Amino acid sequence: MLSFGGQTALNCGITLSKRGVLDKYGVKVLGTPIEGIEATEDRDLFRKTMLDAGIPVARSAAAYSLEEAKKIVDELGYPIMVRVAYTLGGRGSGVAFNEYEFEEIVTRGLMSSLTHQVLIEEYIGTWKQIEYEVMRDAYGNGMTVCNMENILAMKVHTGDNIVIAPSQTLNNREYHLLRTAALKATEACKIVGECNIQFALEPNSERYVAIEINARLSRSSALASKATGYPIAYIAAKLMLGYSLSELINKVTGITTAGFEPALDYVTVKMPRWDLTKFDKVTRNIGTQMKSVGEVMAIGRCFEEALQKAIRMLDIGKNGLVADSRHEPLVDPDKIEARLQRMTDEIIFDVADALKAGFTVERINKLSSIDPWFINKIKNIIEMERILRKEARKVASGDAPDLLRRAKQLGFSDAQIAECIGLSVSEVRLLRKRLNIVPVVKQIDTLAAEWPAKTNYLYFTYNGDTDDIQFRDVMKVMVLGAGTYRIGSSVEFDWSTMNMVWDLKNNGVEEVIVVNCNPETVSTDYDMSDKLYFEELTLERVLDIYEKERPFGVVISVGGQIPNNLATSLTAYGAKILGTDSVDIDRAEDRAKFSRLLDELHIPQPEWSTFTSIEDAKAFAKKVSYPILVRPSYVLSGAAMRIVWTQKHLEQFLLKAAKVSPEHPVVISKFIMDAQEFEIDGVCDGESVYIGAVIEHVEQAGVHSGDAIMCIPPQRLPADVQQVAVEYATKIAKSLRIKGPFNIQFLYKDGIVYVIECNLRASRSMPFVSKATGVNLISLAALAILNGKIPTLPRGDSSMTQVCVKAPQFSFMQLDGADPHLGVEMRSTGEVACFGRSFFEALIKALIAVGYKIPKPNGNILITVGGIQLKDRILNLTKELIGLNFNVYATEHTAEYLERKGGLCVKVLNKISEPERKPNILDYLVEGKLELIINIPSTSVLEKFASMLEDEYQIRRKAVELGVPVLTTYEDAEAFVEGLKMIHRGELKIPVS
Amino acid sequence: MVAPKRDYNAALLLEDGTLFWGRGFGYPTTKVGEVVFTTGMVGYTESITDPSYRGQILTFTYPLIGNYGVPLYSDVDQNNIPLNFESDQAQVSGVVVSELCRAPSHWRSKKSLDSWLYEEGVPGIEGIDSRELTKKLRVQGVMMGVLAVAEDKIDVEDVRRLLASAKKYGEQDFVSVVSVKEPIIYGEGEHKVVLIDCGVKYGIIRELLKRGLKVIRVPYNTSVSEIMEYNPKGVLVSNGPGDPKICVKTVETVKSLVDEGIPMLGICLGLQIIALSLGGDTYKLKYGHRGQNKPCIDLKTGRNYITSQNHGYAVDPNSIDKSGLDIWMINADDKTVEGVYHEAKPILAVQYHPEASPGPYDTTYIFDMFAQRMEVRSHTT
């Protein structure tokens, strides 16, 4: 089955088939046959297949070279769409408005395509973007699970679009015209199983074109599955095994068949979560290249309700669309106009600002291509804000219950209402309850209440007056999930949530209730728990659920930081937190309190302090000496956390990029250079402590733990240092009376072990540690949380026979301009882990898994290193690479140094910024002559010259764009070269690419 | 005529005493009807003008209705049949929605649903828990109800009295109301098909015309001899409202047509009439099938079709043993009869709506089969 592992699995299957591997071993592809997949993946073939089936497509042609591409654009004119065949998430695709952009996109696209093919296509950005999810069995039966409308039209990639299911602006003819086309198109592509088809529909006619088919389950399938309650993946698997649609049962009702089409009696709104501000040099513009890292889905009985819920779910500091005192509205009409035309991740707020600034619905529609239907709905929200403010006194005194109810029906949170009427959030809650304005629970049942449903897939709404379910009085536990994926919080917390759910069940909890809002997760599969609330993880909503359900308690330690942050307020409202007491959580979360605790326990920590003025910060920095690590609580632009090397930089950062004031304190700590960083993941039941593993970072301190390559068991840390850390962890766990999972981060330098951070919750590395050691940390945590005793076990990594390495996956390619170097701010968007008999084997496997290509013998490697210190260290590496028969190239200064100090003769490549000087790095990159780049940015103070940094950046950037692996830390390079040596010696076998 | 910008009170009272208060729209009046629900997410203009909904207060389970406004009746296809309407007027007694869209958006829209229903004299209620209403109908079965929409306060006692005295849905003859009074001829085709209009949807006429046929739409009570005088290649017995057993005259006519051996296609009520004419029996479903997502299985081929449905009555499968009819299709969910064919005569009938409108076009091939049986070459485009 090739359709369940995304594009990666699909590509893998096609390659296996093309190379004859499947035939050789007699392996059958279940579901859509290879030729069907090819008909959807190959642009030319797709076009032909569609036209043969009578389905219109956009005017376009495929090109295999820049020359071919130019001929096509001459005919179709600008703006023009360039699509790249066989890539992930539309990688490399884009709209060109002129010849210059066109050449750039086409060149890059040809490089990144598996088949060196791009498609040049007429521009249909202003059309409606409509998708259908289609199921087909092997007997010709097809149906659509649902359709979806992309609010930001064709302009924006569906992954970055705000998506509503079902469509809202299509009438019966259009809905079924496209539905029929979807069925015909998928039949033509011989789909068996499930697929997604995208159409563009002209907003003022019935003209439409098919854009693409994903012959596999996709992000959209997951969304459709959650939006309807139809278990798409489950049914697709059955269909591929040869079942027919009519013989399978609809799991939701238990009696009706799977061969029907879900009818919704609610709407769902999906919003993407972007983390673009984490990247310097990356614009916040969105378009045909997907840039988001996660998404949420909100369910409501009207659009306004769902939209405002979705905004809160994103956890971007917003209480809804409007009524946000911190929002600085756009007022300049020119600026608004520009932002509506060239959208950013803030488009939905820009539309609201435009309406407030007096833009008409028609004008906004014209500029943005957003259908007036949606703009009018946004207008309703703005109008409600205005009325609430106007009638503030009346509402606050309880004399306008209808208005208050209407506001709740339009998705206003208590916090938004509080902002409008001048009460505190808790006062609004009390007022509401006094007036009996409370939400009701509704079920998602796939067929709009027509048949009795067996599931407990639930959401809250104010647009209704009766709960769909009755609440049982049994031993129940609520588990809070992690919400949207974002940089720093991803599938690891879904793993934690699910394992907690299962282990609570195993330990006798009768009803486990999950609260989460991320459609990409397993925890939001309604059949994974006893009850699923597809809901906000806000205090207001968690309390609503708590008050309806009256559970034994709430688990907040498996969903990352969002639930963790609710601990204190939930306790204040009388909710019972299971696991570590919220007072103790606060003792770990509050830096001052935690620091005091460490002092009491005589555990070293880097010097730190909190500041509310620049002068004090400067004085402290001088005292502890630079570099320092600066963490502002409010950031204006760019990354939040930084290492600062000089006073001048500190001033610049605090004045321009961040705020420092009594309301926005800045935490500064001494940055210990050249330190070894490591972590401990463990579980404590209040008394005994289980140490899962000591996790060693390959890179030195200064690389965020989420971006570091990690290894279990430790390879370099001396045993006595590990022992000290284990003792510290045990002391801290006992002092904080931890009941549940914990993670502590350490530094080691010059014989001293420092503690830098402690989290009393599941950590990112827990699935890694659990899988590497075979002991599930969350199972133990579930025991501890339910007041059980955890068994006495030896340290998890003490008896491992293999080495396990975890490596980060980055998405720099998708983010135009992003600098692929590593730093204190996390930037990776995924991870892999691999086992090996040795560290190097595991490492090489992990790097291959995240997309590194191992340089072939006699291949060309470029070395460019800043800083004398680093150049010293790189000398040996260069010798070894030469010894392995690689052709080593270097930039001018590096080459000169290597020759002077080591007598090594390496060839020089000139800087990208000096294209006239040949041979040039850029030419080598574009021509595919470089197989690996070791580019280590200088960190020392003296070499922080802008131009030099820029040169280094350009090399890294171009390398990423052209898919050439780059190593940016000395430790990574050293480990990689060691791995190459093993390959060279034949000790390590790697797959041929 | 434009709906006045006023806030109306609205109340929906059900037979079991349940009372929903909401905001009124459309025309301020009080109407009695059988309260039913449809789960279709699009197609409100088609449903509201579907004559089969005559005498019924229609609840849309999809919560946002009116999004794409209402186009003109004069928007027609190449055969002059309206594109977005199933007859020339709103047929329902009332409309129930969770939220009415007051700012519609569509290139074809000329007015809001509110304004259109005002023109059509149909009351509407919004802002009620339509899911709760649907669940009540599911559990207790469809029931009579009164929808009252008024500018002033609504007197619940008046509404109760009205409901108590109202004639039951099943006792009323709606077919004679919705059927044409005089024959109408559509199309220029060489081959003629007589369409017995029991409340036909334009969708059926659209599909026949697409196949190059000349359609002679005749009143429900047209005699066999009049029908045969047209020298048709086939006869289509249409959909329509109410209990099929009320349609005594049409059942008689169809019985004779069966004897004539002329190719026939029955749709919805048409199927029920054909079954009755051959000695079969029908019964009332608890809450009917109304929606666009209904799976039907062809028992001959095993194929599963997604169909559009709107019926409150069904044929009792045990009653047709000796009728000469065989069960052709069943509803995949509750196994009710969805299609029959005659063992010896060229008669086909389906319970669902192959013309879609609203709904999926997956079963328009039924018209091709009908055309083939009439030995007419299909001209489907």
Question: Mind explaining what this structure looks like?
Answer:
- The complex is a heterodimer of chains A (993) and B (381).
- Chain A is α+β, with helices and mostly antiparallel strands.
- In chain A, 38% of the residues lie in helices and 19% in strands.
- Chain A starts with 5 loop residues before the first helix and ends in a 9-residue tail after the last helix.
- Chain B has 381 residues and is an alpha/beta fold.
- Chain B has 2 domains: 8-171, Glucose Oxidase, domain 1; 175-373, 3-Layer(aba) Sandwich (Rossmann fold), CATH 3.40.50.
- Chain B is built from 10 helices and 19 strands.
- Chain B is globular and about 60 Å long.
- Chains A and B meet through helix 7 and helix 14 of A and helix 3, strand 15 and strand 16 of B.
Q: How would you write the strand order of the largest sheet of chain A? A: 9-8-5-6-7-10-11
According to CATH, the fold-level topology of the domain at 6-58 and 124-264 in chain A is D-amino Acid Aminotransferase, Chain A, domain 1
CATH architecture of the largest domain in chain B: 3-Layer(aba) Sandwich
- Kindly state the mean pLDDT of chain A as a whole number? 93
In CATH terms, what is the architecture of the domain at 6-58 and 124-264 in chain A? 2-Layer Sandwich
Largest interface: A-B, 55 and 53 residues
Termini separation of chain B comes to 38 Å
Q: Could you list the spans of chain B in which at least 5 consecutive residues all have pLDDT below 50?
A: 377-381
Number of separate helices of chain A:
34
Question: What is the gyration radius of chain B calculated from CA atoms?
Answer: 20 Å
Name the average pLDDT of chain B. Answer: 95
Query: How does the helix and strand content of chain B classify structurally?
Result: alpha/beta
Q: What is the CATH top level name of the largest domain in chain B? A: Alpha Beta
The computed structural class of chain A is alpha+beta
Q: How many β-strand runs of chain B?
A: 19
Number of domains of chain B: 2
Going by CATH, what is the homologous superfamily of the largest domain in chain B? Class I glutamine amidotransferase (GATase) domain
Distance between the termini of chain A: 22 Å
- Quote the beta fraction of chain A: 15-25%
